[in-house]
Design goal:
The protein has 2 domains: 12-162 and 305-386, Response regulator (Rossmann fold), CATH 3.40.50; 165-301 and 389-419, Response regulator (Rossmann fold). The protein has 13 helices and 12 strands. The protein has helices at residues 12-25, 32-35, 54-73, 96-108, 120-132, 164-182, 197-212, 233-241, 253-265, 284-290, 309-322, 328-347, 352-359; strands spanning 40-47, 84-91, 113-116, 139-141, 157-159, 188-194, 218-225, 246-250, 272-275, 298-301, 388-393, 396-401.
Length: 421
Amino acid sequence: MASRGKRVGVDRRTVLKGMGAVGAAGVLGFPAVLRGQVREIKIGSIQPMTGPLAAIGKSTRQGNQLAVDHINGGGGIKSMGGAKLTLVPGDTQYKPEVARAETERLMGEGAHVLVGAFDSGTINAMIQAIKQATKPIPLMIDIGAADQLTQQGSKYVFRSFVTTQTLGRKGIEYMLEMFKISGVTPKRAVLLHVTDLFGQVQKDRTLEWHKKLNAPFEFVEIIAYPTTTQDLSTEVAKAKAAKPDLLLAVTRLNDAILLVQEMYKQRVEVQAIMGPGNPGFYHPNFSKTLGKLAEYTLDNVPWYNPKSALTQKVAADYEKRFGEQLTTDSAWSYQGVMVVADILERAGSTDPDKFVEAARKTNIKEHVTSGGNIQFSENGDNIGASTAMIQIRDGRARVVLPKEIAETQLVYPVPKLWERG
């Protein structure tokens, strides 16, 4: 228990201690005897574990679990006598009706807090279940950007992730900076996007900020397609016919791979393939599947801060544990649980209203994700959340903007897809 007047919360020392304890004692952190002496706090992790987003769900669940292990290894929630976190799994199957049912199930089974769920459409269904519950519990949106998620009047919904407003603005800002650095300015662009909730909203925000910031290129085609598509040949042919300098895409993982393969097949020549806010381009499976074809792909994404010593340790632990690079999916799902733990530590209780009260006072300065201090606005958004522009280089996503956290220099314009070896 912290002394009076001292801030109670999850800090860097707790995380590092937790990492060491996990290494020594395994995933559960402590022997069964010790675990039996403390209270259990159930964190419902609702992620897309099956269906089209299963590869994403695997990464987000791993991020949630790593955070739980670090907290437990560091002594649990000290203000509650060392209470341990337990991750209780739920699977959205990338279906809103299933996400709602899973939310109701976990609330009924005694979950204290929920985290999830990557896809804005399924998160929206979860929020409806919480709003209509007799005894609602808090939801921390670890990944999910559609603006309207936190605009529905539920005091129990918080988002540690960015909004599509932020994604739209930063995407165009980074493009303008890229053009200035390279001295090359595109004139024509094509925007392809999936038609799920996130894809629709991100398309709208990209167009909105393109206009607001007076970007120097025009959109000559806007092409929509369903997330479940197995063939993008028609869409890519239409994009090629528009003769774009720049191809912007809002995709999921599977269609991101299809898109680049089809562009290679049809010999579409552009200055860059870029995501203005794209969940498909940064995932390790994108590079693993495409190999050289993935190189130089650019993506504006909520990322992690590679220059932070804390982030470097967490990233190394994640890669050692799970055999893949820390990315948006794993970093922000990790941070979502860490924010929940910080709030619980200061609340000293699992009571939903005390959780909300403590959440309003959140101010986390040291964390693994891109952006400033984690603080929540009146509607529950993280006002410090921001993004980075990453580029695939040597099979890994690396930050190229902003300059203060860049890992390598930007390459733009990029080599043609069929000239990459």
